[in-house]
Amino acid sequence: MSNFVHPDKRFLSTTVISYGAAILVSALLIWLSLGVGFGQWSSPSQLDATLWQLRYPRVVTALLVGLALSVSGAALQALFENPLADPSLIGTSGGAALGVVLILALGISGIGVPLAAFIGSLVVCLLVLGCHRFLGGGQMGLLILGFVISAFCGALVSLILFLSNDMVLRSATNWLAGSMAEAGFVPLRYALISIALGLAIILPFGRQLDGLMLGETTALSLGIKVGQVRALVIIACALLTGAAVSMSGVIGFIGMMIPNLLSLLFGGGRMRIMFWSGWFGALFLLVIDSLARHVAYPVDVPIGIVLALIGGPFFIWLFIRSTRS
């Protein structure tokens, strides 16, 4: 009896096993995270309705925010031809935060919050892209523009909060630090709609983004409609980033770390990177948030602070690596 296995069947078996293992590990991590709280772990099946009302929204929020920021980061890196691009580093998260704080100061809530985050993120993304095309400066120019515009948005946020009443100041301060403890700040259905729209727009553009990473001239020679692709990808990134910021505040670096790690470890086209970035980014943020609220209990450390401590050294390492290459 021959031991020969057709390559197609072997590939199919490997794919089924890989996806099956990934789904099982994901389900296990979600189940474990649901049980984390009050300085200990308890089986989710033993939790009462009140705890489910607290932990379930937090777990879902962490998954959605991680997914949205990681996919957005993977697309922005291709769009700007820069591995250091991240929604927070190039100012789009800052623009979304400015939109939300402005809406809060005006006393508007509900769907106005994610809508304001989307508009703020979109305006800043277009501003950065337009200024970079006009001024040039390569990768460093893009980062400087992002930092400057992000700082400008931060200054406007501080000014609005300074002029606001205590209630707006108190509700916005915790949210701005980037925390899953604010889960429920925006109804999940609005964020879900925004993320679903963003993914539906961005995922079909994997091949075009691969072409853009080779440079605009090469992309045009491949028949890619560069202007149209850029406009749609920017709208999709604004939807994803706006939804994430409206749920959890400004959380940086995850959109830079996850796509770059997956690209270095496994490679592949931008479609593959975006898909796995969404999956691993969601789980990564869930695990970090669970560890942060368990290890530091009773203090609920904002996850934005934890990711900044991890992402800062990663950014320096990636920057040195990209300049040397």
Automatic annotation (TrEMBL):
- Which controlled-vocabulary keywords does the entry list? Cell membrane, Membrane, Transmembrane, Transmembrane helix, Transport
Instruction: State where it is primarily located.
Output: membrane
Q: Which Pfam families match?
A: FecCD
Q: Which domain of life is it from?
A: Bacteria
Tell me which CDD domains the record gives.
TM_ABC_iron-siderophores_like
Query: How does the protein associate with the membrane?
Result: Multi-pass membrane protein
* Cellular compartment(s): Cell membrane
MF terms (GO), sorted A to Z: transmembrane transporter activity
What sections of the protein cross the membrane? 16-38, 59-80, 100-129, 141-163, 183-206, 218-241, 247-266, 273-295, 301-320
An annotated GO cellular component: plasma membrane
Keyword Cell division tagged: no
NAD as UniProt keyword? no
| Family membership | Belongs to the binding-protein-dependent transport system permease family. FecCD subfamily.
PANTHER family associated with the record: ABC TRANSPORTER PERMEASE PROTEIN MJ0876-RELATED (PTHR30472:SF25), FERRIC ENTEROBACTIN TRANSPORT SYSTEM PERMEASE PROTEIN (PTHR30472)
User: What is the protein name stated in its UniProt record?
Assistant: Iron ABC transporter permease
